[in-house]
Design a protein that fits this description.
Layout (H helix, E strand, L loop, with lengths): L8 H12 L3 H6 L1 H25 L2 E6 L19 E7 L7 E6 L5 E7 L4 H13 L2 H7 L2 H7 L21 H4 L4 E7 L1 H4 L4 H11 L1 H11 L10
Antiparallel strand pairs: 1-2, 2-3, 3-4, 4-5
Helix pairs in contact: 3-9, 5-10
Amino acid sequence: MTAPTAFSNNLLEFLKLLKENNDRDWFNEHKKEFKKLEVDAKRNFNVLFEALNVHDDLDRLKNFRIYRDVRFSKNKAPYKTHFSGSFYRRKPALRGSYYLHIQPNNKSFIAVGFWDPSKEDLMRIRKEFEIDDEEIRAIINDENFRAIWGDMVGEELKTAPRGFDKEHKAIDLIRKKQFLFTKNYTDKEVVSPNFIVEVNASFKAVRPYLDYMSSVLTTNINGEPLI
């Protein structure tokens, strides 16, 4: 890994001002400043990508654009007020992805897991939890894991999905539509010289979860390989 890299206070301050002046005229007046900050931010995302690739196998990094798609939104503000990027593991063997979100006022966070599983993947995961929930619980309830990542979060159904017993002992897992873990950061932490190092360590700690879910999604219900 390269030398410790920090996001700058200038980036956070720019995003604060953008939130207060979220219009094209203001943005165009400050576009030169934005471009410089964008280059610096993307460099940090690339540093994290390289660090993750030391202990995982990533396919690509996607840096999300600052421009919002407002066509179908009631909120017509043209710009996002954060920087973010997703780090995709190499399919088909490795599933799940990592996400880094930089936003001022202590709203930065990282996330990992499965944001929008396909219909087939969702059913496969639910069936696995129906058959055996002990292995996944051992991973996500591990003391060291929980100290970093806390509880699984994400959208879930209010009741059991069709075809599943609402009284099943794993119904809390089966009802889920997303399988995510998140960790929040303060502005002070984001601008710390060791921020990327810390984020990388947190992502490394989640590997048992990703490896388990990958094993589920690359085998059938009988445990036979699909790839």
